[in-house]
Amino acid sequence: MKMNKIYFPIIIAIAVAVGLLLGSRLNSFGDAAFSAKNTKRNKLNKLIDFIEREYVDDINSDSIVDLTVNGILENLDPHSVYISKSELQSVSENMKGDFVGIGVNFYMYKDTVAIIKTINGGPSEKAGIKAGDRLLFANSFQLYNKKIDNDTLFSKLKGEKGSTVSITVYRKTTNQKLKINVKRDVVPIKSVDVSLKISDKVGYIKINRFAETTYDEFHKALLSLKSQGIKELVIDLRDNGGGYLEVAVAIADDILKDKELIVKTKNKKGREDKTFATEKGDFEDGKVYVLINENSASASEILAGAIQDNDRGVVVGRRSFGKGLVQREMPLGDGSAVRLTVARYYTPSGRSIQKPYSDKGSDYFNEFEKRFESGELYEADSIKVADSLKFRTKKGRVVYGGGGITPDVFVPFQAKHGEEATFRFMQSGFVSYFVFEHLDNKRALLGDYSVKKLKEEILGSDIYLNAFKKYTTESGVLLNFNQKEKIKKYLYAEFVRQIYDEISYYEIILSEDAMIKKVLEMKVSNE
Description:
about 35% helix, 3 domains, hydrolase, PDZ, 21 strands, serine protease
């Protein structure tokens, strides 16, 4: 794949706003919806009506309404947001945790839909579609040699559960054009990326968001790790922007003991709701470590705060994002929706971790540069805390409110030679595209390699590293190659993922992870 230019930010800003319910009155714009007391609302409604009837040019009144809604919400807080009709379906599917489709990971390669991998156990795998296949037609709709936007492509591949789509593929390895009927089915969107053992007694679970299915995924992973004999658990919430509060609560309930406070919420009327752990819980005794960073937000902070304030485990990493506002969502009647902040949440010690939001723009959502310049990403002593917002955990330890969760054990951003930025990039889609294209030319050969031989092939020389250097340069990416042996290891990991499985991929990259190394060091020092 030749990309015109790719700009790689050091860190990906997270815009977090998740929740449920807004008053349905925003659904109506007719005069009848407004009483005499609501003259200001009536004024807005009349203005739109005047524009529709009298304005000299034709104007799309729907777009005016969208602008108006966005303008109103911009005067509130950064997390009260409008979701357009075109965006709502993908947002809803992401939070629901599944969709109905054919189950493939793909990207557009030279104006053709190329299959990186089929989803394990999904409709395409069952039907016989393979990694490397090019999709030529969905029924009679041509998918190659033209520009297709994602909405159009998805509309051809998604459909009703049980419906069939005829996919014509080109298989490069056998130089065949095949017509394959794929029966659409529910395809999961995983929120638990992986669960595995990182040492004999330590389990690891990585959660990327808190969706409807997350607790079930987490609980299944936890029970599996327990059956493998783990005594300690690492929950990785790095770059997890949040999601459903009640899902974070359910996970905390598995870890905290009966009647321990998990979270408090308070609305504008001062009503306070407290949520406590119940007597059920499948990991109430083993040691717990929670990994966070500057992109861990909202529900991630609820879970980390509950563990920290109850002295249940150790929070490891860097100060979290700082979102202590609760949103609720309601459809506006035309396929769009609004998420409105309806309450603040507080950790068990009573602290609000919402950071100030006088600036509601990009600086609010991406503080990385400010935190980097202040030194707090690489020096724990540089983290600014408000002495006036001092609280105490269950055992009397001091914690602070006013802007995120400060970890118990600090792990600095790996700034040397741009190391952490490079390794974040090495886990991006760009690397998976490079590996796919390399595999595409050697799939029959490399696909037959054992893991050991594949490792020798990639790590034993600089052939793949040099090819990757050329690929990045031609794509306009400036990447620091000082840590060349580690870069080769990440390339090896991605080859393993595409040829073999996800768990093996994570076993390789976690061996280079600074926070995981810190946890394992702590474990050894405590033994």
